[in-house]
Amino acid sequence: MIAEERRQRVLDLVSTKGFATLADLAMEIQVSESTVRRDLEFWHQQGNLRRTHGGAIFVGDGSNFPALEERIDTQLEEKKAIARAAVARICDGDTVLLDGGTTTLEAARLLLGRSIQVVTNSLPIAALLAGSRETDLVLLGGYIYPKTGVALGPFTVRMMQDLHVHQTLLSVSGLTERGLFNSNLLLVETEREMMRCADEVVVLADHTKVGRPALAFLCEWSEIDLLVIDRKLEDRKKSMLAQTGARLLIAGDLEEFGR
Amino acid sequence: MIAEERRQRVLDLVSTKGFATLADLAMEIQVSESTVRRDLEFWHQQGNLRRTHGGAIFVGDGSNFPALEERIDTQLEEKKAIARAAVARICDGDTVLLDGGTTTLEAARLLLGRSIQVVTNSLPIAALLAGSRETDLVLLGGYIYPKTGVALGPFTVRMMQDLHVHQTLLSVSGLTERGLFNSNLLLVETEREMMRCADEVVVLADHTKVGRPALAFLCEWSEIDLLVIDRKLEDRKKSMLAQTGARLLIAGDLEEFGR
DNA sequence: AATAACTTGGAAGCTATCTATCAATAGTTT
DNA sequence: AAACTATTGATAGATAGCTTCCAAGTTATT
To answer: Which residues of B touch A156 (CB under 8 A)?
Structure first.
């Protein structure tokens, strides 16, 4: 067997299994552990693998939504609390539309295994829920925006025209007195359609978003039914939000009383 | 912090990162490595994690397309050769529609990073190609069939009505004198639309599929432009295929001459 | 308040893996 | 064919992580 072929084989094995030990690989490919070590080191340098003591794990092709991975840790606890509060309002049998974003992804984690119908334009959410027997999944197609892995644009909008859901869970990147904002023009167009086809529009946002506008105006406050936000919200911002007339749900350990 | 909360945190950290070392976790959660070890051991028992020397990796919620994982190894080399032969016929700038399936997934791996437009109804393929700067991706929406993670049904069909692509790469599960077959009625309906919107229909199949019918009839031989198959095809089956009038491309180490 | 049961963090000794090195082999060039 | 280079497998010492055990701290129970 030629060296390059063997290297490829090593990468294939590790990537299909996700993780492989040195002994496994040496056995499978019938070469010494030394050789496998060198191959793993090679791929490690290339950035395709990550070595561990005794083996290696696959880290992907460098794709897989870098924007999501970076942000995934900031305000994670707050986002989880928000997701918990929002998901608590969803009943079995409901149809829910989930927008892309880290907070809605947390919500999807909590919905995993519950018997509901989920509609989403987010690839990470779809990948999470696909394969679940209990949860029905409808994926919104369209152009995939590579940074976050969401489907956007005319295809996506048109596909929603015949859809109807009980709730839409929306992510936004800015909230001011004037209304709600997001960072991408195609995205807000898609999200307006998401709002149109839902009985109830629920917006998920953490406290850092309040007071910050963003590139694209999404909608007025009157067009949303509920804003779920975390407890770290300053009183000043809270009163600002109160003035908008929006219904607020503060997520926290006493969130049950917010209903 | 209460023990259960910390355990959850350990699982969360490992699952979001995919892999975490003991030192990382101990640092992040501010407990001793001993405690982290015990937590990892706990989740390992539960089956949520896999321990390695120095850390742990996430093994998933048991979701993520079991049907794909099982089959992924059978005839893998043949499937790769078929994918290579098919992808060699695709030029930069082309628009290609990829059906779901393990062979088309291999084709997608080979297309990764090339500057083409890909349309697909397959979630695994979309997850692979999303995030790539060079490859444009259009996802076909619809009901997600949980076993294999492909979008099917009326939504999917309708979304293709305004699409046009240079090539469609199709998977099938059976080939006989009568024509081509697949295992799912909704799937063949979707695939017929995939054929309609392409200039050229290319079918990928390994030699084990020949002679086997499957539940759902897809189309006659006259409706496809090319069948790509591997070298292990027996002569008897080869002549049967020749009689159908289909153009054949045998994938192998001399595949360049097959063009 | 006192006891029991459990949890936690650290240390000792052990094991497994790593790195570095070297001789043998395979492949390439002159 | 001979010399040279790259690759491979094996070995030895160094290192890092594992298991086991124990004492201190925490929580629950009586």
So the answer is: 141
Query: Distance (Å) from CA A247 to C1' C17?
Result: 58
Residues of A in contact with B72 (CB under 8 A): 16
The answer to whether A210 and A178 have CB atoms below 8 angstroms apart is no
Longest dimension (CA), chain A: 72
Per-residue model confidence (pLDDT) at position B209: 94
What percentage of chain A's residues is helix, strand, coil (to nearest 5)? 45, 25, 30
- Dihedral over alpha carbons B60, A140, B153, A163 (to 10 degrees): 120
pLDDT at A256: 39
The percent of residues in chain A predicted with pLDDT above 90, rounded, is 59
Residue A60 has pLDDT above 70, yes or no: no
| Residue showing tokens 């639309």 | B193
In B, minimum Cα distance to A158 occurs at: B159
> Does the beta-carbon distance from A123 to B128 stay under 8 Å?
no
The residues, ordered by sequence, that sit 6+ positions from B254 with a Cβ below 8 Å of its Cβ are none
Beta bridge partners of B165: B198
Q: Residue B119, exposed/middle/buried by CB under 10 A (0-12, 13-18, 19+)?
A: buried
pLDDT, residue B77, reads 76
Contact criterion met (CB < 8 Å) for A50 and B19: yes
- Ordered DSSP codes for B166-234: EEEEEE-SEEETTEEEES-HHHHHHHHHHHHTEEEEEEE--GGGBT---SEEEE-GGG-SEEEEETT--
Interface mutation target, options A13, A63, A68, A95, chain B, most CBs of B under 10 Å: A63
Weakly modelled stretches of chain B, pLDDT under 70: 1, 60-73, 252-259
Mean pLDDT of A217-222: 96
Confidence of residue A76 (pLDDT cuts 50, 70, 90): confident
Sheet hosting strand A49-52, strand order edge to edge: A19-21, A55-58, A49-52
Query: Which chain A residues have a beta carbon less than 8 Å from that of B18?
Result: 57, 59
**β partners of residue A52:** A55
Which of 84-123 (A) contact B at CB < 8 A? 112, 123
Structure token digits, residue B192: 């017929």
Q: B82-120: per-residue pLDDT in tens?
A: 999 999 999 999 999 999 999 999 899 889 889 999 999
Chain A residue closest to B141 (CA)? A141
Task: Judge whether B149 is closer than 8 Å to chain A, CB to CB.
Answer: yes
Quote the CA–CA distance of B141 and A62 in Å, as a whole number. 25
CB–CB contact A16 B72 (8 Å): yes
One-letter identity of residue B108: A
